[in-house]
Amino acid sequence: MSGMEIERKFLVHKTMDWKRQATSCSHIRQGYFAAVNTVRVRIRDAKAYLTIKGPSTNNGLSRYEFEKEITLDEANHLLQLCEPGIIDKHRYLVPVGSHTFEVDEFHGDNEGLVMAEVELGNESETFEKPDFIGMEVTGDRRFYNSHMRQNPFKLWRNSLPEEYR
């Protein structure tokens, strides 16, 4: 798959019960390679992918993305070549209106962070915002998975309002 990725990211209110609305859950482990662009290998349950993302535009709303499925064996070998700081999270799919929110619950050094993103067909597309969605963090580099591997949430969690820690 390749093309323009258009998404908005939000923090999730800790007190909301969003998990009951989820239609699926998968476990994701991903690592990153030293590169000018974002290059990652991801294992999601029993499938694996190699992804290359270009620089963000429009305050982090859009960027080019190339993704190719690879074998689990290839992914496990590539993870050994990644920079330190493997991202570990569970992803829940929560349908809301005509969109599906991907809600990531992070583990390890990013434990306590819960973030939702919604992919859009164009930058001005409207969408229904569920109650569990809080502060928008689209374009805030602290919330890029590639950034959190070097600067994990545990180091800056207290900079956020209590409801998102």
UniProtKB/TrEMBL annotation:
<feature type="active site" description="Proton acceptor">
    <location>
        <position position="32"/>
    </location>
</feature>
<dbReference type="InterPro" id="IPR012042">
    <property type="entry name" value="NeuTTM/CthTTM-like"/>
</dbReference>
<dbReference type="Pfam" id="PF01928">
    <property type="entry name" value="CYTH"/>
</dbReference>
<dbReference type="InterPro" id="IPR023577">
    <property type="entry name" value="CYTH_domain"/>
</dbReference>
<protein>
    <recommendedName>
        <fullName>CYTH domain-containing protein</fullName>
    </recommendedName>
</protein>
<dbReference type="InterPro" id="IPR033469">
    <property type="entry name" value="CYTH-like_dom_sf"/>
</dbReference>
<feature type="domain" description="CYTH">
    <location>
        <begin position="3"/>
        <end position="150"/>
    </location>
</feature>
